[in-house]
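Subject: complex prediction, re-run

Hi both,

The earlier run crashed halfway through, so I resubmitted it with identical inputs.
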Amino acid sequence: MLKNDRTELSYAELVRKARQQAPGRRQKFKVALLADVSTQHLAPLLRVLFASNGVDVEIYEAGYDTVELEAFDPASGLYAFEPHLVCIFQSLWKLKSLYYVFVGDRTKFSEVQAAKTEAVWKAIQSRTQAQVMQSTFVLPYERPFGNYGSRVEDTLMGAVTELNRTLSLKARALSSVFMSDIDYLAAWVGRRHFLDEKLWALSKSLCALEFLPDVAQNVVDIALATYGRGVKCVVLDLDNTIWGGVVGDDGFDGIGLGDLDDGDAFRFFQSYLLELSRRGVVLAVCSKNDEAIARRVFKEHPGMVLREEHIAVFVANWLDKATNIRHIREELNIGYDTMVFLDDNPFERNLVRQLIPEIIVPELPEDPALYVRTISELNLFETASHSSLDGQRNVLYEDQEKRDIDKSRFASLDDYLASLETTAVFSRFEPRNLSRIAQLIQRSNQFNLTTRRYSEAECVELMNDAHHFYPFSITVHDRFGKFGLINVVVLRKTPEALEIDTFLMSCRVLQRGIEQYAMNKIFDYARLCGYKRVNGRYIPTAKNMMVAGFFEKFGFDRADADEGDAGTTWHLTVADYEPREVPIRELKLPQGADHGESTQ
Amino acid sequence: MSPVEIHQKLRDVFRDVFDDPLLEITDSTTAADVEDWDSLTHINLIVAAEKTYAVSFTTKEVKALSNVGDFIRLIASRAK
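This time it finished cleanly. Structure:
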């Protein structure tokens, strides 16, 4: 509770207080944070707010996105910490990506997710006396059906609503599980502006007058949709609209998709467009591009969500866009007023508006991360019917037993890891991965044994100097989606031994067997080259304490001398290394993938 | 706003975020030069600067920042 007003929650003020806070001496209340979002900004705020309520708190922050791993592993840091309260924060961001790649009947999605979360609660309850606090998911803003979505069973909005409801019902049955309604907090930000008590008292107004136009527009949207005036087609530009950069200039490997630049934002945008396509909106492409180059991205780029099969009309040439849109309209035989044109370039938008006044051309923001938000705000896709709805009704009557997904499925950590179906692609440095590799080398602080910061140019040298170096990277996927390139190793070939010059990993994939997989690869290579010994080095920094015991874990012996700032050296005879069992399936690169166009 | 003005205001933002009233910054200052400048305080810096100059940066711009000089140029390109 707040004692006076909201100023008690000023972020800047709380951060300042957190810096000045002296550690308390009373007995500590122990709070563990398990989350699929970052908790570093949250933890200091909790400390201050607990302290201002007279409670000394000790906080355990589990690694990013390790909720299940911590809960199912009896030896995890969570249980060693012996918490009084375990706070589980799960976010819409993560849930969205799970939803978009969910295979099978989407009406079961919320059931499956709720069962997984319930299994986490039960695992915690079976091993501690702690109270559990579970967050709700914030409802999404995207509505591919507009208001009509509430009548459709398999929408993201419906799935999140259902999931929140199911979690609450499950929590009711358990006395030590409490819901933390984050969606309420998000909605409050809207409600505090939308509702107007004074206007209600004076004139019985539904809401603040400022928002009454939105209410009216919503009536118009629904009415028009019932008269068949909905959007039927979205015409898409390509460069900087559905991927970052210009494929003609930056090359197949250089466009922002996947791990590169704004790749994440474009993936979400494409996933949204795919949802529109699933709901029956026709997608068309209208781009100033060489057609073969543009189509190749749809055919082969691993970061693409949209594929050629989703595009009804594909126009890539150097004619002006108005001419091309006329062509698309003729092909589809629909009215301009049922078409939306999306293009990042203001020049093209204005040209099309001038030449085809009936077509809908929304302004797009500069940051692609905001595309979906901006388009959602316009409610462009209101509809009054959905053709596959009848087919879905049957699903409701399906055998209830089938819906009861085996809830205790993830009883052990090994089962859980196996269920993730992790796959890894091992590859020597190659041109298309170098930017991401250099980025990871610059940014990794914690899981980084030597913290050698090679630039992209230096990575090129490492790649080309096969006589002295064997540099490789590992790219990981699991059944929920893509982690991307998350591990980088540089091996230095010396006459005496194979040296691990660099070994680093993104902290997003801890405890998944990736480092064991990489170490197996190092010793495979040592054996292949006939080395007798592998040497390692650990150079301590302020941030890489988590890997201080790394070599020891793999059975390396430490050399006697501590070399101060130069760290410690470790060695292991190749014959003595026992390859680790890893819950990972290895994928071979598709043929020809090594020979993609280079951006260098 | 001139680069000098932006620089002075930004220095105050840095002093505030790092809670160090004597902190000085130059165009070539990077995260390696300031103790405590990690990914956590970096986000605090960006958010505080957006508030101070009443501007909004894109995700890509924030990712591309490598030193204080970049930061000042970015603010100058955005501020009215």
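The radius of gyration of chain A is 27 Å.

- K.
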